[in-house]
Design goal:
heterodimer, A: 2 helices, B: mainly alpha, 7 helices, 9% strand
Chain lengths: 64, 174
Protein backbone atom coordinates (compact mmCIF):
# COMPACT_ATOMS: atom_id res chain seq x y z
CA UNK A 1 0.00 0.00 0.00
CA UNK A 2 2.70 2.46 0.99
CA UNK A 3 4.93 1.55 -1.93
CA UNK A 4 1.99 2.09 -4.27
CA UNK A 5 1.10 5.44 -2.68
CA UNK A 6 4.72 6.54 -2.92
CA UNK A 7 4.64 5.65 -6.61
CA UNK A 8 1.45 7.68 -7.01
CA UNK A 9 -0.86 4.68 -7.38
CA UNK A 10 -4.08 4.78 -5.38
CA UNK A 11 -5.40 1.51 -3.99
CA UNK A 12 -8.90 1.80 -2.46
CA UNK A 13 -8.81 1.19 1.30
CA UNK A 14 -10.79 1.71 4.49
CA UNK A 15 -8.97 0.43 7.56
CA UNK A 16 -5.46 1.40 6.51
CA UNK A 17 -3.95 4.63 7.83
CA UNK A 18 -0.29 5.57 7.34
CA UNK A 19 0.06 6.46 11.03
CA UNK A 20 -1.19 3.11 12.29
CA UNK A 21 0.21 -0.37 11.94
CA UNK A 22 -1.43 -2.23 9.01
CA UNK A 23 -4.42 -4.16 10.25
CA UNK A 24 -5.73 -5.94 7.16
CA UNK A 25 -9.30 -6.40 8.31
CA UNK A 26 -11.47 -4.49 5.84
CA UNK A 27 -10.02 -6.28 2.80
CA UNK A 28 -11.09 -3.50 0.49
CA UNK A 29 -7.48 -3.15 -0.62
CA UNK A 30 -7.39 -6.74 -1.89
CA UNK A 31 -5.12 -6.87 -4.94
CA UNK A 32 -3.82 -9.61 -7.17
CA UNK A 33 -0.20 -10.36 -6.28
CA UNK A 34 1.29 -12.65 -8.87
CA UNK A 35 -2.16 -14.14 -9.48
CA UNK A 36 -3.07 -14.64 -5.81
CA UNK A 37 -5.38 -12.34 -3.90
CA UNK A 38 -4.04 -10.55 -0.84
CA UNK A 39 -4.46 -7.33 1.13
CA UNK A 40 -2.24 -4.55 -0.20
CA UNK A 41 -1.76 -3.09 3.28
CA UNK A 42 -0.33 -6.20 4.97
CA UNK A 43 1.70 -7.65 2.09
CA UNK A 44 5.19 -6.19 1.91
CA UNK A 45 6.48 -4.93 -1.40
CA UNK A 46 9.30 -6.99 -2.89
CA UNK A 47 11.71 -6.80 -5.80
CA UNK A 48 10.04 -7.81 -9.06
CA UNK A 49 6.58 -8.21 -7.47
CA UNK A 50 3.72 -7.98 -9.97
CA UNK A 51 0.64 -6.37 -8.45
CA UNK A 52 -2.67 -5.73 -10.19
CA UNK A 53 -5.28 -3.48 -8.63
CA UNK A 54 -7.39 -1.77 -11.28
CA UNK A 55 -8.77 -4.90 -12.90
CA UNK A 56 -12.41 -5.26 -13.86
CA UNK A 57 -12.84 -8.27 -11.57
CA UNK A 58 -11.30 -6.59 -8.51
CA UNK A 59 -13.25 -3.39 -9.00
CA UNK A 60 -16.47 -5.39 -9.33
CA UNK A 61 -15.71 -7.17 -6.04
CA UNK A 62 -14.98 -3.88 -4.30
CA UNK A 63 -18.39 -2.56 -5.31
CA UNK A 64 -20.30 -5.62 -4.17
CA UNK B 1 -15.46 -42.34 -2.76
CA UNK B 2 -17.79 -45.07 -3.96
CA UNK B 3 -15.44 -47.71 -2.59
CA UNK B 4 -15.38 -46.10 0.87
CA UNK B 5 -19.16 -45.89 0.87
CA UNK B 6 -19.47 -49.57 -0.06
CA UNK B 7 -16.91 -50.52 2.61
CA UNK B 8 -18.89 -48.81 5.35
CA UNK B 9 -22.27 -49.98 4.11
CA UNK B 10 -23.59 -46.59 3.01
CA UNK B 11 -25.43 -47.74 -0.09
CA UNK B 12 -28.16 -45.16 -0.45
CA UNK B 13 -25.90 -42.14 0.04
CA UNK B 14 -27.11 -38.95 -1.60
CA UNK B 15 -24.17 -36.64 -0.82
CA UNK B 16 -20.82 -36.71 0.91
CA UNK B 17 -19.25 -33.72 2.57
CA UNK B 18 -15.51 -34.29 2.30
CA UNK B 19 -13.12 -32.58 4.70
CA UNK B 20 -15.61 -30.84 6.97
CA UNK B 21 -18.06 -27.99 6.41
CA UNK B 22 -15.54 -25.83 4.54
CA UNK B 23 -14.46 -28.75 2.36
CA UNK B 24 -16.13 -30.08 -0.74
CA UNK B 25 -19.65 -31.40 -1.00
CA UNK B 26 -20.10 -33.98 -3.71
CA UNK B 27 -23.40 -35.32 -4.96
CA UNK B 28 -24.25 -38.91 -5.82
CA UNK B 29 -23.40 -38.06 -9.43
CA UNK B 30 -19.71 -37.68 -8.51
CA UNK B 31 -19.02 -40.70 -6.33
CA UNK B 32 -16.37 -41.90 -8.76
CA UNK B 33 -14.07 -39.05 -7.78
CA UNK B 34 -10.89 -39.91 -5.93
CA UNK B 35 -9.58 -38.98 -2.50
CA UNK B 36 -6.28 -37.40 -3.54
CA UNK B 37 -4.53 -34.06 -3.39
CA UNK B 38 -5.24 -33.67 -7.08
CA UNK B 39 -8.97 -34.23 -6.70
CA UNK B 40 -10.60 -34.36 -3.25
CA UNK B 41 -8.02 -33.30 -0.69
CA UNK B 42 -9.01 -34.19 2.85
CA UNK B 43 -7.61 -34.77 6.31
CA UNK B 44 -10.08 -37.63 6.60
CA UNK B 45 -13.41 -36.10 7.56
CA UNK B 46 -16.42 -37.65 5.84
CA UNK B 47 -20.06 -36.78 6.36
CA UNK B 48 -22.50 -39.00 4.56
CA UNK B 49 -26.05 -37.86 3.85
CA UNK B 50 -28.74 -40.30 2.83
CA UNK B 51 -31.51 -39.76 0.31
CA UNK B 52 -33.96 -38.72 3.00
CA UNK B 53 -31.89 -35.69 3.88
CA UNK B 54 -32.82 -32.34 2.43
CA UNK B 55 -29.60 -30.78 1.14
CA UNK B 56 -31.11 -27.33 1.55
CA UNK B 57 -31.43 -27.93 5.29
CA UNK B 58 -27.88 -29.31 5.40
CA UNK B 59 -26.52 -26.17 3.75
CA UNK B 60 -28.67 -23.95 5.96
CA UNK B 61 -27.21 -25.66 9.01
CA UNK B 62 -23.65 -25.12 7.76
CA UNK B 63 -24.40 -21.48 7.04
CA UNK B 64 -25.50 -20.93 10.63
CA UNK B 65 -22.42 -22.74 11.83
CA UNK B 66 -20.13 -20.39 9.90
CA UNK B 67 -21.96 -17.25 11.01
CA UNK B 68 -21.50 -18.45 14.59
CA UNK B 69 -17.88 -19.49 14.19
CA UNK B 70 -16.51 -16.53 12.21
CA UNK B 71 -13.79 -14.93 14.35
CA UNK B 72 -14.90 -11.51 13.17
CA UNK B 73 -11.45 -10.16 12.34
CA UNK B 74 -11.99 -9.35 8.71
CA UNK B 75 -15.10 -7.76 7.31
CA UNK B 76 -15.89 -10.00 4.30
CA UNK B 77 -16.19 -13.07 6.53
CA UNK B 78 -17.81 -11.41 9.55
CA UNK B 79 -20.46 -9.64 7.49
CA UNK B 80 -20.66 -12.20 4.69
CA UNK B 81 -21.33 -15.23 6.88
CA UNK B 82 -24.09 -13.46 8.75
CA UNK B 83 -25.64 -11.88 5.63
CA UNK B 84 -25.60 -15.30 4.12
CA UNK B 85 -27.68 -16.58 7.01
CA UNK B 86 -30.45 -14.03 6.53
CA UNK B 87 -32.14 -15.25 3.34
CA UNK B 88 -32.17 -18.78 4.75
CA UNK B 89 -33.96 -17.89 7.92
CA UNK B 90 -36.35 -15.64 6.08
CA UNK B 91 -37.03 -18.21 3.38
CA UNK B 92 -39.51 -20.77 4.67
CA UNK B 93 -40.35 -23.52 2.17
CA UNK B 94 -41.46 -22.02 -1.09
CA UNK B 95 -40.83 -18.44 -0.05
CA UNK B 96 -37.29 -17.83 -1.29
CA UNK B 97 -36.67 -15.72 -4.35
CA UNK B 98 -34.19 -15.93 -7.18
CA UNK B 99 -32.86 -12.67 -5.78
CA UNK B 100 -31.84 -14.48 -2.57
CA UNK B 101 -30.00 -17.09 -4.63
CA UNK B 102 -28.08 -14.44 -6.51
CA UNK B 103 -27.20 -12.60 -3.32
CA UNK B 104 -25.85 -15.79 -1.81
CA UNK B 105 -23.78 -16.46 -4.91
CA UNK B 106 -22.30 -12.96 -4.70
CA UNK B 107 -21.46 -13.30 -1.03
CA UNK B 108 -19.84 -16.68 -1.66
CA UNK B 109 -17.69 -15.12 -4.33
CA UNK B 110 -16.47 -12.41 -1.94
CA UNK B 111 -15.82 -14.91 0.84
CA UNK B 112 -13.79 -17.09 -1.46
CA UNK B 113 -11.56 -14.32 -2.72
CA UNK B 114 -11.22 -11.81 0.04
CA UNK B 115 -11.60 -13.31 3.49
CA UNK B 116 -8.31 -13.74 5.37
CA UNK B 117 -8.84 -17.47 5.84
CA UNK B 118 -10.12 -17.89 2.31
CA UNK B 119 -9.09 -21.53 2.31
CA UNK B 120 -10.98 -22.34 5.48
CA UNK B 121 -14.11 -20.29 5.04
CA UNK B 122 -17.57 -21.30 3.96
CA UNK B 123 -17.07 -21.97 0.32
CA UNK B 124 -19.43 -24.79 -0.18
CA UNK B 125 -22.76 -24.34 1.53
CA UNK B 126 -24.88 -22.25 -0.77
CA UNK B 127 -22.07 -21.98 -3.27
CA UNK B 128 -21.38 -25.08 -5.29
CA UNK B 129 -24.19 -26.75 -3.36
CA UNK B 130 -26.61 -24.64 -5.33
CA UNK B 131 -25.28 -26.01 -8.56
CA UNK B 132 -25.07 -29.60 -7.34
CA UNK B 133 -28.46 -29.87 -5.74
CA UNK B 134 -30.54 -27.43 -7.78
CA UNK B 135 -33.71 -29.40 -7.03
CA UNK B 136 -33.27 -28.88 -3.29
CA UNK B 137 -33.00 -25.15 -3.78
CA UNK B 138 -35.55 -24.71 -6.51
CA UNK B 139 -38.35 -26.24 -4.53
CA UNK B 140 -37.76 -23.47 -1.96
CA UNK B 141 -38.32 -20.82 -4.57
CA UNK B 142 -41.72 -19.45 -5.41
CA UNK B 143 -40.71 -18.92 -8.98
CA UNK B 144 -37.41 -19.47 -10.71
CA UNK B 145 -37.30 -16.00 -12.18
CA UNK B 146 -37.38 -12.74 -10.26
CA UNK B 147 -39.60 -12.49 -7.22
CA UNK B 148 -39.71 -9.44 -4.93
CA UNK B 149 -38.05 -10.11 -1.58
CA UNK B 150 -41.03 -8.65 0.29
CA UNK B 151 -44.24 -10.60 -0.04
CA UNK B 152 -47.21 -8.37 0.78
CA UNK B 153 -49.80 -11.17 0.68
CA UNK B 154 -47.60 -13.34 2.85
CA UNK B 155 -47.12 -10.56 5.39
CA UNK B 156 -50.89 -9.95 5.57
CA UNK B 157 -51.58 -13.66 5.96
CA UNK B 158 -49.16 -13.90 8.84
CA UNK B 159 -51.00 -11.12 10.66
CA UNK B 160 -54.41 -12.69 10.23
CA UNK B 161 -54.49 -15.05 13.27
CA UNK B 162 -54.00 -12.13 15.68
CA UNK B 163 -56.33 -9.84 13.86
CA UNK B 164 -59.91 -10.62 15.00
CA UNK B 165 -62.83 -8.55 13.76
CA UNK B 166 -64.33 -6.31 16.44
CA UNK B 167 -67.56 -7.24 18.14
CA UNK B 168 -70.43 -5.18 16.77
CA UNK B 169 -72.15 -2.78 19.19
CA UNK B 170 -75.01 -4.59 20.81
CA UNK B 171 -74.05 -8.00 19.44
CA UNK B 172 -74.32 -10.82 21.97
CA UNK B 173 -71.06 -11.63 23.82
CA UNK B 174 -69.67 -15.08 23.03
Amino acid sequence: MEAASAAGVYIPHLCHHPEFKPHGSCKLCTVSIGGRLGAACTNKAAEGMKVESETAALNADRRR
Amino acid sequence: VRQILIDCGAEDAHAVQVSGPSGTCISFREFDRRIAFEDLATAGAFMVFSRERDMFEVARNFTHFFAHESCGFCTPCRVGTSLNGTPWTSSPPGKGSAYDMNEMKNIMHILRGMAIAASATPRQPGGADMEKFPEAYEKRLKRLDFEPAFDLDGALCRRAPHHRPRRRMGAPRR
